[in-house]
Design brief:
Low-confidence stretches: 1-12, 25-37, 46-50, 126-130
Order of helices and strands: HHEHHEEEEEEEEEEEEEEEHEEEEEEEEE
Distance between the termini: 81 Å
Helix content: 10-25%
Strand content: over 45%
Structural class: mainly beta
Mean pLDDT: 78
């Protein structure tokens, strides 16, 4: 082994000499390359996802208040159709949905928030001071979304929860001259309604470097979205506890009543007279309240146009002219069939021989419609409600702003903005009932084993109920119109804002 040590030592020394020579040669080449490259490089600009994330972090870190920021790249990574869907990514933001699409926004449970578009108050299309629905604002229109949760003194008041600031893309956000165009075509298909609506957007920006050293740019954004959806649902408004007894006797139609606790005595429920809360159910039963089947048909279209002109002078003064127009069209319809179980009494109107009672004392199935010794008695009320709610809302905004650096420590920001919101509602509501009170049908119901209950109206009869007594509810001759309401309203709102800020 000793004879091998000199060879190993020589090999190590030789390797170290070669490595040092290669390192010195490589360092010299790198230094020479950097020297050559630096002669023609004045500035390196980093763009892309990492720059976007860092920009959002810097905005939050350098802000004088508590705010959250989502930049355009983050918006683009997510499958969000509108601003509400994008805002839900921020901590403390809750949104309301219509047919699965975000349309309302609240901050920490407060819906009264100030909405700004590039620092300008966003005009609502009604009596509200700001927009209440965000479904008409496509997410791709904006460069960043900010939620200011603790506004500073320089912010305009008007929001209890927060300030939601929507910042659109500016043409001079990118350096240099040139143009950029982005287009998108889509088709939204709704399986339930079996309809598809085409849509899309186009964005174009153009930048010029002027001979004086100033810069000028303009952009145009046009977006069209729509949807035709259908929603079907069954709604049970709850269960109410009812006693079996009336005047201390078991009524005949309950076949001697049901001794739920097995003590041989039919007892009413016990309750606290101060709170009205049931303390002991005893032999009472839970029976269904009002049940409704509804079909909602949604037909909506949103069209928006936005353009920005930006001019930056040689001394750094920044002029921006924003112009936008957005139109929302709604042609929603709703049809509802309602069964009014609320006013029916267990000890009078339910047939005891048809009741199916669960272990938790719920009349899960049965027939509402009593039989008396003298013949048939009342059933329960059925009605159909239909509504149509056409809506057209249009917002138009203009804003001219100037940002100028007066000195190293003083900046002046001025803005003159005008906004107009206009809406037209033309709503119709109609209700029809089944016959008259003396002819209310017997109703068989069953809530077992399915999410959709079985509600079957039958003709008033002393014979067994079945296919022969079933009422054809689609026959218009059995219905009687009882109410018709037509509401037509037109509202217009104007906002004129002048701002001057020195900081």
């Amino acid at each position: 082994m000793d004879s091998n040590r000199p060879n190993v030592t020589v090999f190590k020394i030789f390797s170290a000499i070669v490595a040092s020579a290669l390192l010195a040669s490589t360092s010299a080449n790198i230094f020479a390359q950097e020297s050559a490259d630096n002669e023609g490089i004045d500035e390196i600009i980093v763009t892309g996802i990492r720059a976007s994330l860092q920009d959002a972090i810097n905005k939050k870190r350098n802000a004088e208040d508590i705010r959250d920021v989502i930049n355009a790249e983050d918006i683009g990574k997510l499958p969000d159709q509108n601003v509400a869907d994008a805002l839900q990514r921020i901590t403390g933001i809750q949104i309301g949905r219509s047919f699965g699409e975000g349309n309302e926004v609240s901050v920490r449970g407060i819906a009264a928030n100030r909405i700004e578009l590039n620092g300008q108050t966003q005009v609502g299309t009604g009596a509200s001071r700001s927009i209440s629905e965000f479904s008409g604002l496509p997410a791709e229109m904006f460069s960043s979304l900010e939620v200011i949760k603790t506004p500073s003194a320089k912010e305009t008041e008007g929001g209890l929860g927060a300030i939601i600031r929507l910042n659109t893309r500016k043409p001079l956000d990118q350096r240099g001259a040139g143009s950029y165009t982005n287009a998108k075509i889509e088709n939204m298909y709704a399986d339930r309604s079996d309809n598809s609506i085409p849509g899309g957007s186009i964005y174009h920006t153009q930048r010029w470097n002027l001979d004086s050293g100033a810069r000028f740019g303009m952009n145009v954004n046009v977006t069209r979205t729509g949807r035709m959806a259908r929603q079907d649902y069954a709604l049970l408004k709850g269960w109410q506890a009812q006693n079996q007894l009336k005047g201390g006797n078991c009524p005949a139609n309950l076949n001697g009543c049901y001794d739920q606790d097995g003590n041989g005595v039919i007892e009413d429920f016990d309750f606290d007279p101060e709170t009205g809360q049931i303390t002991d159910l005893n032999d009472a039963l839970f029976v269904p309240m009002q049940t409704a089947f509804a079909a909602n048909l949604q037909d909506r279209a949103n069209t928006s146009f936005r353009s920005t002109l930006q001019y930056q002078t040689e001394d750094g003064s920044d002029w921006v002219l924003d112009m936008s127009r957005a139109k929302a069209e709604r042609r929603d319809q709703r049809y509802q069939y309602t069964t009014s179980f609320n006013s029916r009494q267990l000890n009078r109107d339910y047939r005891g021989d048809d009741l199916v009672i669960t272990a938790d004392q719920t009349a899960i199935a049965g027939t509402v419609g009593a039989l008396k010794g003298t013949g048939v008695d009342r059933g329960t009320g059925l009605n159909i409600q239909a509504s149509r709610a056409p809506y057209d809302g249009t917002t138009t905004t203009f804003a001219l702003s100037n940002d100028r650096q007066l000195s190293d420590r003083l900046t002046m920001y001025s803005q003159l903005a005008y906004g107009k919101g206009e809406q037209m509602n033309d709503q119709i509501y109609a209700t029809a009932v089944h016959g008259v009170f003396q002819q209310l049908p017997f109703v068989q119901y069953d809530f077992r084993g399915t999410d959709v209950p079985s509600i079957i109206p039958n003709q008033r009869s002393t014979v067994a109920l079945g296919e022969g007594t079933r009422v054809d509810f689609m026959d218009p001759r059995i219905h009687k119109p009882v109410s018709y309401t037509h509401l037509r309203a037109h509202e217009t709102r104007h906002d004129l804002v002048c701002r001057l800020l020195l900081e």
